[in-house]
Please model this.
Amino acid sequence: MGDKRKAFLKLLLMFLLMTSCKKSKEEVKITNDLPKKEVVKKAKEIVISKENGDFKAYKTQEKIIVDGIGEERIWNDIPWYGMNYIWMGDPVSSSDYQGKFKLAWDEEYLYILVEVVDDYLNETLANGKDNYWKGDYVEVFIDEDKSGGNHKFNHQAFAYHVSTEGHAIDKSTTEETIFFDDHVEVKKSQEGNKYLWEMAIKLYDNTFDEKLKNNIPLKITDNKLIGFSIAYGDNDGNNRRENFMGSKKYHGNNNDDGYINSDVFGSVLFVEK
Ligand SMILES: [Ca+2]
Ligand SMILES: [Ca+2]
Ligand SMILES: [Ca+2]
Ligand SMILES: [Ca+2]
Model:
């Protein structure tokens, strides 16, 4: 490669990285017409953080297999979003915790690919069902109609605590801790201290009744907007929540209102591309 060409590519790469640091990072959505493979690769490593917690989910043409492996084409084509705002605990080192995610959809599911670096994986239910928050978990907040409002013991919105064991945990209308495993399908894979969680989530509206077996999930359509946030509870074996790291800068009082009040959620807009 000639020196001029190298210099040009270097400049282009610097430009891309600089643009990506600005607020409207979403505009750097990866396109395949970038000139060089390495530039594309660099651009794909960029993680977009959004203080306001407003994200886009991109439609997949291919069926996504929930197997903890992100090899479907859509996962390669869309940007990473960051989930590194500190909701609780002290700042962490990059080996203690780092998290990012991607969002895709089809008519039936919101798909989430989460990549978390965690130095010590603490099984969610090691201390029993009611102490799920003392283990590690991914929390997915969903308010299907973006109504906002209290959802602690009702189902106008959900806070799924997705467990390392593959359960989706939230509170029932009778204030018990129950599994919503029919709502969330999840598979996890591991490479060293890096964990990939692949999820398919059905959306239910406020008519969902936990006592019924025949609740019908909603069909997702282009341009739909829902309330949404995602976070990771990192607990490295000290029997408490050491860190809670989220996708939006602020999440209510002490950044801990999400499990009660869906006003604090960010959002997801479903787009075709
Ligand atoms: Ca997969
Ligand atoms: Ca950790
Ligand atoms: Ca709602
Ligand atoms: Ca941990």
